[in-house]
């Protein structure tokens, strides 16, 4: 092996990864280095062949789907015939008898509380700290600085009229969530708040008051020396909301990690979080600022006792799925190791620093891992056995490692109860990832016919059934009060007014959490969990019949649609612009998730899931003759100019024509049929590695 690798128990490990693990991660865990490497080698030897076989099974099933759909092109799909075929090939499995999940030692933020969830790229320490510290945030700031209220602050300092509107909206919120025994919060002039429900007053910190509603805390900041408090009869300077209860630190869709250097940087940030030592230094307002993790918050209860509340969001870590391998570790046969297996071992090892320390993250003593992109119950059961082996390696009690299952692939959503059953002792989270789910829908039925335009997908009946089934099956399996049922991301971080009007649908559905793109969005989304009693909504939905499998499996085909040339061009431009805008940052700058301007210059949070949809959609239209290669080439030419102009102010930006990012973007479309399950990672990783090698 090259000098950049060292041998450990028959494995070839990148020098920087071996050094990080032996110097930084292993000390303090009680795990000797020799034992760690021997156990790690044994896990790879046992599970890597099975991982490869599971991926081969994906390919076999896709080939059978392709052949079946090719035979029926142009014909209506008979639901009964499709279901029989899917059962015959093992795509659909028998559903388990009724059961209840029973994970032990689950923190209340996951088991019993309902509130917002952040997802943050693990390679960015500043973003990680912002997310972890977003457990408590200012409602005044969130309302003042966004379009959550009509209009915008006037330029040139504090806008008093805007401030008055913020205070009015915030007092109205208090009237709804924690009403006074008499009168309105609009007229509160200080002193001990006399609430209609006295039990909602739970603590005090100095002059500040702590209130509780639906399990979430509200802190009234009393400061008569503050510019806002000085003009308030009660001295109320701000209202802090308990906002992001949980955060997913992401090693997957939102990062560009293609080699050992990237993986070590990611793991080092996770270690800093688990040890409580992570900091970030950056320039702000002309001075250097150092950010660190927030401390816990302490209050005196009405009975003169002490109440300690977490100062930080409870952290999950999202590992990569089963598909990708990593050059950070080479197996004895010279092949790259499965990346998801390395993630499981290393992120769990690092979490020992939390379990063996003051438990600043999980007070219940658990490790929380989200596992994405699993196809069906066989793959979920594989994860369960893998986590068993990692627990044995790290000398942990069985089911210490908890799992979140992303319900984001067609075979998983069609067999969701069986997937949950496979990890019933450790599951703490299911979530509808409608973006990847749409990408898998496109690829799974690629040969069935041309698909409807991307903008029509959200209204398709299969998505409605998908979202309903996720909650209905989760509740039937006993996740209510034991685990999170989650919903997807609000992708427009600058459109908080729209978010406030629309995202209340998630707690209304009975979901106990939903993804938001920023700490500010988490604070505003927290208002929804005060407006809706999620436990009551779950109780109301618990007896519902599960939406039919036939609805879920209904394909979003366009049928014999007469395509207008202008409509086709608009759709291609929309897809291609999104592909280019995301890929150029991924390849050239290693940015896995960012606010990317769409074709209308609206900033949207983009990651690989959105890229999967756009690239597969164009590939589908090419396959079925809705557009031609010349049409797509023309769209790439038009949109390269558009994306270059949108990034003109970025000094790190390279015009598309001068780099390999354009090649990568074109490959995602023109080689889209051959990509495993339509995933974008293989091509992105290959082109990013070339870009890094070039400097």
From TrEMBL:
Q: Where does Mg(2+) bind?
A: 408, 436
* Keyword set includes Lipid biosynthesis: no
Instruction: Domain (Malate synthase TIM barrel): give its ranges.
Output: 315-539
List where in the cell it is found.
Cytoplasm
Malate synthase G alpha-beta insertion domain ranges (all copies):
158-187
Query: Which residues belong to any copy of the Malate synthase C-terminal domain?
Result: 568-650
The principal localisation class reads: cytoplasm
Alphabetical list of HAMAP family matching this protein: Malate_synth_G
| UniProt function note | Involved in the glycolate utilization. Catalyzes the condensation and subsequent hydrolysis of acetyl-coenzyme A (acetyl-CoA) and glyoxylate to form malate and CoA.
Family as reported in the entry's similarity comment: Belongs to the malate synthase family. GlcB subfamily.
- Its protein name is Malate synthase G
The species this protein was found in? Sphingomonas hankookensis
Q: What is the lineage of its organism?
A: Bacteria, Pseudomonadati, Pseudomonadota, Alphaproteobacteria, Sphingomonadales
Gene coding for it: glcB
